[in-house]
Amino acid sequence: MRHALIAALFTATALVAPALAADPAKPGTRSVTLRDLGYPDGVTLSGISARQDIFFPLPAWVPTDNLQLDMKLDTALAEGQRASVQLLLDDQPRWAGALKPGTHAQSVAASLKRTDLRQGFTKATIAWGAQWTDNRCVDQRLPGGFVTLSPDSAVTYSIDPAKIDSVRAAWSALGPRVHLLLPAGDLTVTQFQAAVKLAGDLQRQGRIVTFDRLPTPGVISTLSVPPATTGSIVIATKAEVEALGAAIRALPGKDKLWSLRDGGAGADIALLPMAEGMALALLDGIDGEKVRVLTDGWSPLADTSANTINAAKPQPASLIGNDGIPFAVLGLGQGVQELVDRAEWPLRLDYAQVPQGQRPAALEIELAPGSTMGDKPQLLHVFVNNTLLRSVSLPDGGKVQRISVPLPDGLLGRSNAIRIVLQRQASGGDCREAPLASPAQILPGSRVTLTPDSTKPADFYALSPAMAKGATLVVTPDHLKDVAAVNLAARIVADLVPAQAPLSVIVGDGKAKPATPFIQLPGASLPGKPDLPVRLDGGAVSVKDRSGQALLDVTGTHGLMTAQLASLDGTPGLALATSDGRISPLMPRLAFDKGNVAFADDTGLLMAFDTVRDRAVRVVVADDAGWADWLDRFRIVLVLGAWGLLTLVGVGSLRRWYRNRAPKA
């Protein structure tokens, strides 16, 4: 069934090539740390009992050697406390040790074995248990020690580039730092589209992407790949790759490099041996839609050295519908945890997952809390973006509980952290009979419910649902020859455009009109003038606070980029502008979140605010804040003056009435 679904999405014609003997190369050593996986502070366990599963990615379809987990532990135990730690690899116990009182650091190394090359990860589990004495438990009333798994803990392995013999293996072996090599000349519109789509999807997966141009055959000495690169992808025509390859193979000792592995007629993707290892070459027929054969998880289909891709339509159905977003999409996994006193389920809701015309309304949680040994109720706490939204008592033992948690307006943003915490009151005092851990599970029916939303996007993050069915990049002819434009567009796409949304590219010459919500790169023109929160073409522009002090000189700051929510004939979009229309090659990833106006430079996002809701700052054009800003600045004085004037008028009216009243008879 799975292969039938894949075949329905993409039909690949394998262009089988004879084996090409690669240059002898030393197997490249790779490492994946906890920091790479998004744990900048490591993992800390404490309490009576705790457990954490960590999934380290491995290259699927690629043989690995010297596979090992190096774990660095920082422990702290109070005097008289006892604790132990256990390490499991793929659910098999591999190490256990009792911890010493005081503060210590120790390292643990364990070798790993892969039984299935198709599995793209290895699972490491660290378990912790502690007590004070035989009859005194460690619980919330008596804090004890802890163990921290250092963020430098890593899985290391080595791969032999000569064993990468298929497109799917090369894609899986790319690693966390990918280098994209673009054509030496101008990119075509489809090449620009493919490069932006590919780089955006790679960044969305957490990889670091760098860009460079291919050299011409006459100056091949300028061809270089950053030393930290773990994988390379070339986007160019077959003719350009072959011409460059012929020049490289003419060099001494390079006769096996830069020769496409059967990149025959019609091949869209092929293998390309480079000095740094096996690379992928995206050739003449590649575009943003065909890139999905790699980025959407269908790369197991590409099991030969070259492939022709035919994208099927309509697009495959998504797990996300108008009835809600399942917790499984938010990273729930199986949702089962063994707990004694506390369990926590961390989830992540990206607003790009919200369907078009919808907005999140509530969390619908189905929880099987499991039975406890005593009669004390269990407690459930629900946090969203570190805000406690619901805390309830669950008195009915192990019965399935259904809890609805409404999401208040203004709480959500671009990326939202959801934490569901279940607590049990473990026995304190007499612990000669240790408290038993029992499972609890968040059931698959749990979801984020949605409600219709027909309003226009009021914040940057709200553009993502509007782009769910497609987005358009508006570029200039100069952008097609500018690597910095590809870099900027890819970073914007990674943050705002949903992964499944089709991406189109048009050259903004003032005549072409985008058919879908758009991203307008600096210097590109649209037919007519889009509606913008602030018009920046009326003179000198600055950002000032309520007292009139300048916070940012927009016009006089070199390299500054302005981003605004825009609307063109009812079509929403993002308008980017710089003072000279140029794009900095060092522009980092910009996480546009709340607000409708933002400013950024090479260091990242400087400030973002809403011109309607926020009153602490305002954009001033040509030193003219306008009557509205003048009234806002002096509103207290004006209100007091109005009250004083009304008081004087009232007192004067009473005096005239008193003087003119009729005398008594």
TrEMBL record:
Pathway in which this enzyme or protein is active: Glycan metabolism; bacterial cellulose biosynthesis
GO biological process: cellulose biosynthetic process; UDP-alpha-D-glucose metabolic process
Family under the similarity heading: Belongs to the AcsB/BcsB family.
Protein name: Cyclic di-GMP-binding protein
Signal sequence interval, chain numbering: 1-21
Keyword Transmembrane helix: yes
One of the record's GO cellular component terms: plasma membrane
Free-text function comment from the UniProt entry: Binds the cellulose synthase activator, bis-(3'-5') cyclic diguanylic acid (c-di-GMP).
Location(s), subcellular: Cell inner membrane
The entry's keywords: c-di-GMP, Cell inner membrane, Cell membrane, Cellulose biosynthesis, Membrane, Signal, Transmembrane, Transmembrane helix
Naturally occurring in which organism (per UniProt): Niveispirillum cyanobacteriorum
TM stretches of this protein: 634-654
Main location: membrane
